[in-house]
Design brief:
By secondary structure, the protein is an alpha+beta fold. It is globular, with a radius of gyration of 22 Å. The chain has a 3-stranded antiparallel sheet. The chain folds into 2 domains: 1-32; 33-115, Alpha-Beta Plaits (2-Layer Sandwich). A hairpin with a 4-residue loop joins strand 2 (61-67) and strand 3. Helices cover 46% and strands 16% of the residues. The site of copper (II) ion has 7 residues, from helix 2.
Length: 119
């Protein structure tokens, strides 16, 4: 009987330790994450996938959504992991101009015809 009480005590301790860690982890991610919007040139749906793919599987970036009509991207990211300027560099490297970083002529020229936005 004594060992059973001991075991349940241990289980309780383990569960609360896990729970505490989980809530600390969640608090960290929610408080650190930031959402920013900025201009990104582009024309079509293909541009949208190029731009968003450039930010996919990038550490620190949670989500991105480029609006074809507004020519604006909304990015949710962790500024302690990746800086906004680095995000703009990734988009420029894919061939698209942002408000701060422009794509190189080489990258721009590499875009498919339908994606060659006016500069
Ligand atoms: Cu396009």
């Amino acid at each position: 009987m004594k060992s059973l009480i001991h075991l349940s005590g241990l289980l309780f301790w383990m569960c609360s330790a896990v729970l505490t860690q989980a809530s600390v982890g969640a608090a960290f991610t929610t408080s650190a994450v930031k959402t920013d919007s900025f201009h990104v040139s582009g024309n079509c749906g293909m541009c949208k996938s190029h731009i968003e793919d450039a930010l996919k599987n990038v550490k620190g970036i949670e989500s991105s959504n480029w609006d074809k009509e507004a020519k604006k991207i909304t990015v949710t990211y962790d500024p302690s992991v990746i800086r906004l300027l680095e995000i703009k560099q990734l988009i420029a490297a894919a061939g698209y101009d942002t408000d701060e970083i422009k794509a190189t002529a080489e990258r721009y020229n590499g875009l498919p015809g339908c994606c060659k936005y006016e500069r």
